[in-house]
Amino acid sequence: MLSAMAATGLALSLLVAPEAPSTADVVPPGKITVDVVTVNGSGCPAGTAAVAASHDNTSFTVTYSDYTAQAGAGSTPTQFRKNCQLNLRVHYPQGFTFGIAKADHRGFAHLPRGARGMQRAGYYFSGSSSTGTSTHDIAAPTSDNWQFTDTTEVAEIVFAPCGAVRHLNVNTELRAFTNSANQPAFVSMDSTDGSVRTRYQFAWKRC
User: What is the pLDDT of residues 69-91, one digit of tens each?
Assistant: First the structure.
């Protein structure tokens, strides 16, 4: 039903050279929190994006409640593309730093025959000129949930510089296309019950 194509992967250039590879047992103690500093984009109007860190400090999730790109019947010409940029501040103990090892993107798509959809994502630390994106195509016909996972090799994980405060920018984009003006087509990164979330897995290392 769905097809995925990673256009470039999330192999970002390193901000700092990695020390020892991150392992599952290198997790900071205490409580990790993630604050939303700024929110911009047509896919995340004010109050429609929420961020929460996991209890075990291994990941954080972003929940969207109004993030849908649509085309065809019932849509306007500008609604085929939606995007969202979140600027996040991660609070964690001194002596550690982090990167993003994996991202799980989930949503729902309704695409009749002749339509298609696209999901794109990327992230980078403020102050870095390096960035990368992953692009996934959603094929029609479908009317079902979709899920894509982007994984970064340990040697290619971008870590925030030790001892520096760098905000994490998370960029996402959805697009919907259709050849028929009489049929609706949409790609969504939300759900009515809030259960559809994007999960980002931390990679921790000691400074």
Answer: 999 999 999 999 999 999 999 99
Q: In this structure, what token pair is assigned to residue 52?
A: 């929460």
Rg of the chain over Cα atoms, rounded to whole angstroms, equals 18
The CATH number of 33-206 is: 2.60.120
Q: What angle do CA 65, 185, 40 make, to 5 degrees?
A: 35
- The one-letter amino acid code at 44 reads C
Q: How many CA atoms lie within 13 A of 32 on its CB side?
A: 25
- pLDDT for 146-186, tens place per residue? 999 999 888 888 899 999 899 999 999 999 999 888 899 99
- Single pTM value for the model: 0.82
The residue extents of the domains of the chain are 33-206
- Cα dihedral sign, 187-191-195-200: positive
Residue type, 121: A
**Measuring CA to CA, which residue among 2, 39, 43, 9 is closest to residue 121?**
9
Q: How far is CA 187 from the centre of its chain?
A: 15
Q: How far, rounded to the nearest angstrom, does the alpha carbon of residue 201 sit from its chain's CA centroid?
A: 11
In whole angstroms, give the CA distance from residue 112 to residue 124: 35
Q: Which residues pair with 124 in a beta bridge?
A: 169
Q: Which spans in the chain are helix H?
A: none
Which bin fits 150, alpha (ψ -120 to 50), beta or left (φ > 0)? beta
How far apart, in whole angstroms, are the C-alpha atoms of residue 93 and residue 62?
22
Distance separating alpha carbons of residues 67 and 79, to the nearest angstrom: 11
